[in-house]
Amino acid sequence: MDRLKNLKVTSEHFSVPYRNKFEEGEYRKRIQFMRGGKIRRVKFEYSGYSVDAVLDRLPTARIVSEDEDKYIIDAEIFGDGIDMWIRS
CA of 12: how far to CAs of 9, 15, 20, 84, in Å? Predict the structure, then answer.
């Protein structure tokens, strides 16, 4: 605001269609890895010490089924970084 030299107030109004609004929070939930790509749904089996670590890393993840120490996890992810993360 310190660089404005001239300002004119008009009676003109405009509207913002919220259905086309970019949802930054939803975007951040899906981009957990620094890799580009498209939004995709992944489903994998996890058997480890703490399923909470997976749920913390992937905010859109949900447990589909649980059998003893194995979990089937479904998540919506943006990009291809999930491939490297799962293989690690």
Answer: 9, 11, 22, 51
